[in-house]
C-alpha cells in the first residue's frame, strides 16, 4: 500500500503536468517551467516514498524471520 510520500509525490506530478499544459496553452513559459519543476519534485518524492516503504517491508520481513 502506498505511503503518504508516494501519494503526495504522485499528486505533485499531476499538478506539474497540469501547469505545463496550461503554460503551453497560454504561452506562459514561467508557468510551464514551474510545471516541469513540480513534476520533477513529485517524481523525487514518490521515489523516496517507494524506497522508504520497501525498506520498511524488508525490516518487517527480517523481524518476522527472526521471531520464527
Largest sheet: none
- Judged by helices, strands and strand pairing, the structural class is mainly alpha
**N-to-C SSE string, H for helix and E for strand:** HH
* Number of strand segments: 0
Q: How many domains is the backbone divided into? A: 1
Helix count, per DSSP? Answer: 2
Average predicted local confidence, pLDDT:
96
- The radius of gyration over CA amounts to 17 Å
Content of β-strand: under 5%
Shape from CA axes?
A: rod-shaped
What level of helicity do the residues show?
A: over 70%
Q: Which spans have pLDDT < 50 for at least 5 consecutive residues?
A: none
Tell me the span between the first and last alpha carbons. Answer: 25 Å
Keywords:
68 residues, mainly alpha
Amino acid at each position: 500500500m502506498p505511503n503518504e510520500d508516494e501519494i503526495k509525490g504522485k499528486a505533485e506530478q499531476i499538478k506539474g503536468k497540469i501547469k505545463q499544459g496550461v503554460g503551453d496553452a497560454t504561452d506562459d513559459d514561467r508557468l510551464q517551467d514551474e510545471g516541469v519543476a513540480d513534476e520533477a519534485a513529485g517524481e523525487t518524492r514518490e521515489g523516496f516514498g517507494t524506497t522508504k516503504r520497501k525498506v520498511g517491508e524488508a525490516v518487517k520481513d527480517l523481524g518476522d524471520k527472526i521471531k520464527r
